[in-house]
Design goal:
Blueprint lengths: L12 H12 L4 E7 L5 H14 L3 E6 L10 H7 L11 H10 L10 H15 L5 E6 L6 H11 L7 E8 L13 E3 L5 H11 L5 H11 L3 H12 L19 H14 L3 H12 L22 H5 L3 E3 L6 E3 L2 H10 L2 H14 L4 H11 L5 H16 L3 H13 L4 H17 L3 H12 L7 H15 L2 H16 L21 H7 L33 H4 L6 H20 L2 H14 L5 H11 L1 H4 L3 H8 L8 H13 L7 H14 L2 H17 L3 H17 L3 H17 L3 H18 L2 H18 L2 H11 L11 H4 L1 H10 L3 H13 L7 H14 L3 H12 L8 H18 L2 H18 L2 H13 L16 H11 L4 H8 L3 H15 L7 H7 L7
Parallel strand pairs: 1-4, 1-5, 2-3, 3-4
Antiparallel strand pairs: 6-7
Helix pairs in contact: 1-2, 4-5, 5-6, 8-9, 10-13, 11-13, 11-14, 14-15, 14-22, 15-16, 16-17, 17-18, 18-19, 18-20, 19-20, 20-21, 20-24, 21-24, 21-25, 24-25, 24-26, 26-28, 26-29, 28-29, 29-31, 30-31, 31-32, 31-33, 32-33, 33-34, 33-35, 34-35, 35-36, 36-38, 38-39, 38-40, 39-40, 40-41, 40-42, 42-43, ...
């Protein structure tokens, strides 16, 4: 065994000083060490760990490995494994988050923010008795989910007793590159330090060889240590000259791998096979490796490799680790393809209870098409999708397609990969997959149509062409024009072990598998290791609506895409053809698709009972794919049942935007914004809309981008920013109308109606409103027709069109709108009250509207009804009777932050003889966090300093202050102290 040398003791004065200062701070900081392979990052991490341990810190170590780079949360589990016993001390909410992430219970995967906050709480708990240092080596190989959480945590350590140090290779891209953590660059040793290290370890070198090694090593400590032994083992030419590999433009890490390769080649085949299995399974390297092997392959009888300086062996525990990640790379590169496949087959058996890792090893062990292996990969992709790993799912589905035995299955899986890629915002990748499917046959497959139409629809807003493609594909499946895939003797749901024979052939001990270092009975579970092959199957409640036949899975995707296209087209004839086509499919259309058909089309014609069906479908969200949740929540919005599910959407949206189905994340942001608008949380709605617009434009989703602009325009109109509203209205209409995107053109008309009402231009409001639907009827499949019921009635009344107003209110009652949704009930009762000529009827309808349970959930609509009621009371029963309703309306408009409507209500109050409250900005109570941020800002701290104290980013601090200023009625930080001092005691959080 080669002795290790503390490289940090030679040179590195600058780095050692920086690390000593870091440790002296006793936590509250994060630091990234970035440098080339072999430059000494691991040695510096060992040094900082030793310094921290010497000061009484608890040190937790982890190391990223390529084998787990696609397994969600695998890296995080390494870090937190020693802290798992402390989970029981957390509150129930945070404990449930970890249970889901680490596979101990089912449930929707948390967002990065939710998980990050839970991790911060766990770390704070662990550091309550002694400072804690987290040390991560080879962070470039951490999986995406873990990297996001570590970056989130690292930015919020200030003020805590927790420190984080990360080592990264400079030449390998990493999620930490955008984590905005402080960096300490690690370069080569100085010339003097290089000479000292070389002389310390190899004083016998002749001057010529010494100069050559120094020149080739270029200050890289690993090269200074490894090149001399290479020569001493016989690396000289026949003429006695040094055989140090000359620098010919080949990067130094690759030349070091060549040196390691020579040592590997000298080992026996049995030892090389053991090293290969360890390397392919991600056995760690260096001191951090001891914390990474809970589910790793255990290498046996490898003393010879340790003697050659390839491995480090702990003399007490016998645990084995590669001496450096470059050794691991060299082992893999040295092996033949057949050797690598045999090793992967053996590892598939070792991990037979881990659906994701097992499938990956099976795929790597297989050359020829194998339906069982393809099915295993498909199951792994399903698992990754549910866990928020759509990016990994695309790769696994693509490989599953390559291993499919029939053209039909290959096409279906490529279509699935393209479908998930499109939802993940990888439209270019989706198109590549579609093209790769097209060359495999002469006919365009239905699965390819899904991806192609998806891109044409969402990227370009082409409702006409995409509809033609989808309808033709559905008719082809219905009429038998597309043969069913040949599933052979198995399917994705086959209970038998895929490719079990290959695993046994590759490993003679397969019936008595080699033990891993700490199996599932002795270690806390890895996120996916302690269950059987159905461990990541969707929860039964989530799978009951899914088609059982693969061909019907493609059909369901086509049906749902057709329904989305029809929704955006928002045209009666198109919808009628869609209904007829779906009717011809009978029970092949799933129950959820039937919900979409009724909710997304015309709630006036088909909405009765939909709310109850949606609520039943959303009763259990565990295990549901993100796009399934999104579609059901869109249906919930159409029947005004979205409120209870907004918190779930907010938890999931960050995950999907970062590592999952970003297109679903875009729609989730739309839904969150709409519910915030409905609830009167207009500041939050505007922030959500801006985030959505940035996301949709950066991913070139033109349809979603204009959809977001439409909602921002509607919000601007509500708030009295009518010039901005009309700018957005014009932009949306100019894009949508030529394309026939009726959903957006109706929204543009709704913006015009709302802006005109806000400005008091009732004639213009009426003209916009009847552009959506004429009075006395509801244009079929015009989704804005019932939503603008009150707008049309109010505009008609103010322009003397009382007959049209009354006819429209009565049409709402005849259509049964109160039974469709609570909001439509509120609007219907309000419209009937406003248009009633009989005072008793008017009073009854106003009472029904103002006492309706949904009133609090829709404060703007309720305030408008109260304003109209107050005006009527002033004219019919005198000022005293009018004041209560007018006061409530004025207060509501003020809280909402719509100055024109608030001033209108105050004018009516003055006409009723009341002293109207002075105009003021939105004065909703400050939340606890807003109050804390405001007080720190009032004390003179900058946003960065506030963020350090509150574990928030400076941008989040700025967002809080953006909300605080209008609530306090101020416009600058200088006014904060006085404004906070004037707050009534009862408003203090």
């Amino acid at each position: 065994m080669v002795e290790s040398v503390d490289v940090t003791m030679v040179g590195r004065e600058r780095e050692r000083t920086a690390l000593a200062d870091f440790v002296a701070a006793d936590g509250g900081r994060a630091l990234v060490l970035r440098g080339d392979a072999g430059v000494g990052k691991s040695a510096l991490l060992d040094h900082v760990a030793a310094l921290a341990a010497g000061r009484g810190h608890r040190v937790l170590r982890a190391a990223g490995v390529e084998a787990e780079a696609e397994l969600p949360f695998a890296g995080l589990h390494q870090f937190l494994y020693p802290l798992l016993p402390s989970l029981d001390r957390l509150d129930d909410r945070h404990r449930r988050v970890f249970d889901v992430v680490f596979g101990r219970s089912e449930g929707p995967p948390p967002s990065v923010m939710t998980l990050g906050i839970a991790v911060l709480d766990l770390l704070a708990l662990a550091a309550s008795h002694e400072p804690l240092l987290l040390v991560l080596d080879d962070g470039q190989w951490f999986d995406t989910s873990s990297t996001e959480v570590c970056g989130f945590v690292g930015r919020r350590l200030t003020g805590s007793s927790v420190g984080l140090v990360v080592g990264l290779r400079a030449e390998v891209p990493s999620g930490f590159d955008t984590a905005a953590l402080p960096e300490l660059p690690v370069g080569g040793l100085s010339e003097r330090a290089s000479e000292h290290l070389l002389d310390l370890r190899n004083p016998e070198l002749d001057p010529r060889t010494r100069r050559l090694i120094l020149a080739e090593a270029q200050g890289n400590p690993l090269a200074l240590l490894e090149l001399p032994p290479h020569l001493l083992r016989g690396g000289r030419t026949a003429g006695g000259h040094s055989a140090v590999p000359a620098h010919t433009g080949v990067p130094l890490p690759q030349r070091l791998q060549q040196i390691y390769g020579a040592r590997i080649a000298a080992l026996s085949g049995t030892v090389r096979a053991e090293l290969l299995r360890g390397a392919l399974d991600g056995v760690g390297a260096g001191a951090a490796a001891g914390h990474t092997r809970g589910t790793r392959y255990r290498m046996r009888d490898v003393d010879a490799a340790a003697a050659y300086g390839l491995l480090d062996i702990d003399p007490l525990s016998g645990e084995v680790a590669f001496r450096h990640p470059l050794v691991r790379s060299a082992v893999v590169q040295q092996a033949t393809p057949n050797e690598r496949r045999a090793a992967h087959a053996a590892l598939a058996h070792v991990h037979r209870e881990d659906v994701e890792r097992r499938a990956v090893h099976l795929a790597a062990s297989t050359v020829d098409p194998d339906e069982q292996v393809a099915a295993a990969l498909e199951a792994a992709a399903d698992s990754a999708t549910v866990r928020g790993g759509s990016l990994a799912a695309v790769s696994w589905l693509t490989r599953a397609a390559e291993l499919s035995e029939s053209h039909g299955e290959r096409s279906r899986r490529l279509g699935s990969a393209a479908f998930v890629a499109g939802l993940a915002g990888l439209l270019d990748r989706a198109q590549q997959l579609v093209r790769s499917d097209a060359v495999s046959g002469t006919d365009e497959s239905p699965a390819s149509v899904v991806a192609a139409a998806y891109g044409a629809f969402y990227e370009d807003g082409d409702v006409r062409f995409s509809r033609q493609q989808v309808v033709a594909a559905i008719e082809g499946i219905r009429d038998g024009g597309t043969p069913a895939p040949d599933l052979g003797t198995s399917s994705a749901g086959d209970a038998r072990e895929p490719h079990a024979g290959a695993e046994r052939d590759a490993d003679p001990d397969a019936d008595q598998p080699r033990p891993t270092t700490g199996d599932a009975n002795t270690h806390a579970p890895h996120p996916a290791t302690t269950r059987d092959t159905t461990a990541h199957a969707p929860h039964p409640a989530a799978s009951q609506d899914r088609p059982s036949h693969p061909r019907d899975e493609v059909l369901t995707r086509l049906v749902n895409l057709l329904l989305a296209i029809s929704q955006y087209a928002s045209e009666a004839a198109s919808w009628e053809r869609t209904h007829a086509l779906l009717a011809s499919l009978g029970d092949r259309v799933t129950a959820h698709s039937r919900i979409y058909e009724d909710a997304w089309g015309d709630v006036v014609l088909r909405g009765t009972g939909v709310r109850e069906r949606v609520e039943r479908a959303l009763a259990d969200l565990r295990g549901r794919e993100p796009w399934e949740i999104t579609r059901l929540c869109v249906a919930a919005y159409h029947v005004d049942a979205l409120g209870p599910y907004r918190r779930h959407l907010q938890r999931v949206v960050d995950r999907e935007v970062e590592t999952g189905a970003v297109a679903s994340g875009m729609t989730m942001l739309h839904l969150v914004m709409l519910d915030q608008m409905a609830a009167g949380e207009w500041d939050d709605a505007e922030r959500t809309g801006r985030r959505g617009l940035e996301l949709t434009t950066s991913h070139h989703h033109a349809l979603f981008a204009h959809h977001t602009r439409a909602y921002l325009g509607l919000l601007a109109a509500l708030r009295g920013r009518t010039d901005r509203a009309r700018e957005l209205q014009a932009a949306v209409e100019a894009w949508a109308r030529p394309r026939g995107v009726g959903f957006l053109t109706q929204l543009a008309d709704a913006i015009g109606t709302t802006a005109a009402l806000t400005d008091g231009d009732y004639e213009a409001a009426y003209l916009h409103a009847i552009g959506i639907t004429p009075p006395g009827t509801f244009t079929p499949y015009a989704h804005q027709a019932p939503r603008t019921l009150l707008d049309l009635v109010e505009a008609a009344l103010h322009t003397g069109r009382t007959e049209q107003a009354r006819r429209h209110a009565l049409a709402a009652r005849r259509a049964g709108l109160p039974a469709v949704s609570p909001r439509l009930a509120l609007l219907t009762y309000g419209a009937l009250a406003m248009t009633a000529t009989d005072l008793a009827e008017a009073d009854a309808m106003y009472r029904r509207a103002e006492t309706h349970p949904a009133g609090a959930a829709f404060p703007f609509e309720l305030a408008r009804i109260r304003l109209a009621h107050g005006v009527r009371l002033r004219h019919t029963r005198g000022p005293g009777a009018a004041r209560p309703a007018l006061t409530l309306a004025a207060d509501a408009f003020t809280r909402l932050g719509t100055p024109p409507w608030a001033e209108r209500a105050r004018a009516e109050l003055r006409a009723a003889g009341a002293s109207a409250p002075a105009a003021r900005a939105h004065r909703a109570p400050l939340t606890w966090q807003e109050r804390r941020v405001a007080e720190l800002a009032a004390s003179g701290l900058t946003n960065k300093e506030i963020g350090a104290r509150t574990h928030l980013s400076p941008r989040t601090v700025s967002s809080h202050l953006y909300r605080v200023f209008p609530k306090l009625g101020i416009t600058s930080r200088a006014a904060l102290r006085d404004a906070l001092g004037r707050l009534p005691e009862e408003r203090n959080p």
